[in-house]
Amino acid sequence: MNLHAVILAAGQGTRMKSALPKVLHRVGGTPMLGHVLATAQSADAAACHVVLGHGAGQVQQWLQADFPGADVVLQEQQLGTAHAVQQAMPLVPDNALVVVLYGDVPLISVELVRKLAAAAGDGLAIATAELPDPFGYGRILRTAKGRVTGVVEEKDASPEQRAIREVNTGLLAAPARRLKRWLAHVGNDNAKGEYYLTDVVALAANDSVEVQTVAAGLDEVEGVNDRLQLAQAERRYQRARAEQFLRDGLHLADPARFDLRGTLSFGRDVSIDVGCVLEGSVELGDNVSVGPYCVLRNVKLGAGTRVDAHSVLDGAAAGRDCIIGPFARLRPGAQLADQVHIGNFVEIKKSALGQASKANHLAYVGDAVVGARVNIGAGVITCNYDGANKHVTTIGDDAFIGTDSQLVAPVTIGRGAYIAAGSTISKEAPEDALTICRAREQKSFKGWKKPKK
Ligand code: UD1
Ligand code: CA
Description:
UDP N-Acetylglucosamine Acyltransferase, domain 1; 21-stranded parallel sheet; binds calcium ion; 2 domains; seven-stranded mixed sheet; Spore Coat Polysaccharide Biosynthesis Protein SpsA, Chain A; alpha/beta; 19% helix; 8 helices; binds uridine-diphosphate-N-acetylglucosamine; 33% strand
């Protein structure tokens, strides 16, 4: 089957009140248009034609980066949905089957697209739904025997027609050869003065072509016109993903408080507490547990690693059985080997920490290569930046860095070295030796008087 998807995305989206074109607003971290394109591709569309108008430049830029295979069709004036589809038709061969989708109806399922394509056959298929409140939608007109004869838009409908609860979702499928002919006959003599795509339904019926209806799920065909609907779509999307993960064996403390804006893979007995945001690619090994209110972006964690509350991990990887947090921050390039402990208010950037090394409180480790079993005390800072360039700190296995020490990079701390608390180290500290560097010796003054107010 030569399936061509035509995706309408030329509308302005005025009600979003945004400088960003509507279809670039994100659901689950992906622009709405990206969801629709991915769905079309999963349904084996041979080509995707995206009809752009308002904000075309911005949308095109995004398409070039994320969906370079999609065709862009410009609809300079938005004269209606039929006119929009017509702009794409020169790119569609006569023997193709066309499915029309909407850039602002992001959550349609691959299954619905497949069903529509299959139902169309050599005729026309439209996706419909029964709504308790059909206001604003086109209504499906049927004969007494149930044959579909047309669609009437809200503004053009009579009071009796407005009572019909079976509505047009907008999605349809038909052979290109027929659709092209019907589109050529659509006029704009209606309440809105627009070329309505829905008029092809009556044209098909007049041609004695069978019009099939495919029942769509209410959740999947809801469009996004304002930010309230965008937020509602986001919740539906997150809920559906969370429920799927639960069925797949992921422990989520609360599926209503789960946000994934990318992809997640997980092993057995992985648990995620409430309020976490997962972005980009997140990989969690067996028995990983993530505490409440953590942010994980492009993160890979080995089996048995635990992330405690309020930690922020970005572009970081950890081995097995690490303990990270609470209140830890791993920045891009943080690489923890197995059994590493990173505690509260510790920031690690572009640094590798060897097996069983620990930085449990209040430290900054940047541009460092840290060996195994190193203890980094509270308040230790790697002074990696001289105001112009970044420099590396190297710390050998089994070193002990006393609290409140500064390591002025570039600098090397030897294996087993012991740095006394409060030292400022700017030269190499030799292996297995105690190095101390404080401003002056401690003195006490007897009989000293406290200052008075
Ligand atoms: C349309 C259907 C209606 C259906 C409803 C479902 C028509 C005439 N009506 O109505 O039967 O119940 O969708 O949500 O099709 N667009 C363009 N170019 C245009 C006009 C629209 O690209 O010239 C795009 C819009 O950006 C939008 C989509 O097409 O994504 C639908 O257009 P809209 O004007 O919102 O149609 P509705 O009045 O909602
Ligand atoms: Ca609409």
